[in-house]
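seq:
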Amino acid sequence: MKYRLLAGVSALVTAAALSACSSAGDSTRDADQAGGVTTVDVWLMRDSVSAAFQEEFTKGFEAAHPDIDVRIQIQEWDGIGQKITAALASNDAPDVIEAGNTQVAQFAESGGLTDLSDKKDELNGDAWLKGLAEPGSYDGKQYGIPYYAANRVVIYRKDLFEKAGVDAAGITTRERWIEATTKLNKGGTQGIYLPGQLWYALAGFVWDEGGDLATESGGKWKGALDTPEALRGMDFYARLQALGKGPKDSDEDDPPQAEVMAQGQVAQVISTPGGANVVIENNPALKGKLGFFPVPGKTAGTPGAVFTGGSDLVVPAAAGHPEAAVTFIRELTGDAWQKKLAVAMSYVPNRTTLASAVAGDPGASAMAVGAANGHATPNTPGWAAVEAENPVKDYMTAVLTGGEAAKEAAKASADITRAMNAGS
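struct:
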């Protein structure tokens, strides 16, 4: 599957985009009440569901709700921010839209989403994954309903671990992870391949220490990489990164870390479980030799904090059938279909109480453990500006190449502060 961790959104839309946007077309809108049957129009994203799951769900939903027909349109991630913004500003919005969890705040700020706060109880909101629920809220109101999640785990080589006498089950804390990785980092084997700019992993270590990327006070945001907690997170990242040969000035896509692991001398990478499939595609000889474990935390029994990627479901304020939209969301995020979706797509279900649904999938079950300590980036539309220039990456490279951590963190924090408040 394509795993989108953060999709940037443009808040500006041209008049041409507005006029071009249509969820289903005016003619079908006029006819959708024929025979007393309501048609709920839904936008789901490419690879969020398989064709087989979509067909099964649609048949099951319509059988349970004979007064509602489902019309699903699959959308592409590329350019989806602009397309959703245009739809929300039009009079012809779909009834339900799948949005990236970190996109919801920007759409809510525009006033284009329906407040679903009063639906939290009936949708099991008390057990939602924090990394999906928190970015789905804005200004104290819940606009996004958690749909599914995915996060990073450690993919490791079982054979290299066995050769080095390392038991993955014993890696229960970050310090034990360092000890095991040091033992693995010998004889031409990289204990871990960790590029210098994997900032999602850094964020997890910062959160583990009680820090954050940015904090809000009095309506203003301030970069927080220069706090003692965040600096401790960067120190751990530097220790771990040194136990391999990952480049200090690029991220996991340059070169693609799965391809590096496929070359045969890397014991571990931090990735979504789907990365294992890419490794095997590039080196079929590694089939059966890859395993997974959650990113370790500071203490045994508590998994490391991870960035939770995934999607929320939202209802446009201009939706023609908001009640049917909520019914659709209730079914798709309910116990039965969440379990089926998790198994079919190797996702983490939207609630902590459903983690057992993926117990038979090693990668997904490792994700589910980590998801219980999942976090999201700062919940504000201004974070997109930080992503656009990403001073966090520059900061990481500066420290890893010898820069003074406190000085570089202060500079990066100032850049984050400026970017987040540029539009205020």
